[in-house]
């Protein structure tokens, strides 16, 4: 049973033209794949399948290679980020205090997996290794707002503030 909701690709013709211009400019450079992927992410905000396919077709590089680069380097995102970016600390202090339960409950509430964005573009969910607020463990951030000493029961109320 699939729990995640996919976000439809909404690229524009202007974005596609910008990507083609970048590819045309850089294609002859040795090692051009990473710079092209970085520019593509700047243009689109992330690297969805459709953008990876355009790069693959234009450079005649297998999709497997592009996907491998996109998933190996943490700078690349395969999903868009939401209006509200939720980051749950899974560092040692937070994890020992139950941040794994917080993260799992957020995935259930939002209907997405970590690294993904809700279909309405409102929330995205990521794990991080340390927010630097270990004394408040477990901790999560929503954009710049920090929430500490969390329990799973508090999450619905916190998310309601952002609806």
UniProtKB/TrEMBL annotation:
Keywords: 2Fe-2S, Iron, Iron-sulfur, Metal-binding, Oxidoreductase. Binds 1 [2Fe-2S] cluster. [2Fe-2S] cluster binds at residues 89, 94, 130, 134. CDD domains: TRX_Fd_NuoE. It comes from the Bacteria. Its cofactor is [2Fe-2S] cluster. This is NADH-quinone oxidoreductase subunit 2. Its EC number is 1.6.5.11. GO terms for molecular function: 2 iron, 2 sulfur cluster binding; metal ion binding; oxidoreductase activity. Belongs to the complex I 24 kDa subunit family. PANTHER family: NADH-QUINONE OXIDOREDUCTASE, E SUBUNIT, POTENTIAL NAD-REDUCING HYDROGENASE SUBUNIT. It comes from Eubacterium ramulus.
């Amino acid at each position: 049973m699939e729990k995640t909701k996919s976000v439809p690709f909404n690229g524009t013709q202007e974005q596609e033209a910008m990507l083609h211009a970048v590819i045309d400019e850089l294609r002859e450079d040795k090692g051009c794949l990473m710079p092209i992927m970085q520019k593509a992410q700047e243009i689109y905000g992330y690297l969805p399948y459709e953008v990876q396919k355009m790069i693959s077709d234009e450079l005649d590089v297998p999709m497997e290679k592009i996907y491998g680069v996109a998933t190996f380097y943490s700078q690349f995102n395969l999903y868009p980020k939401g209006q509200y970016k939720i980051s749950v600390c899974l560092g040692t202090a937070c994890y020992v205090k139950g941040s794994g339960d917080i993260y799992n409950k957020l995935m259930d509430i939002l209907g997405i997996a970590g690294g993904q964005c809700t279909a309405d573009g409102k929330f995205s969910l990521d794990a991080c290794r340390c927010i630097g607020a270990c004394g408040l463990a477990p901790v999560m951030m929503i954009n710049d707002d920090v929430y500490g000493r969390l329990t799973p029961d508090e999450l619905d109320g916190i998310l309601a503030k952002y609806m």
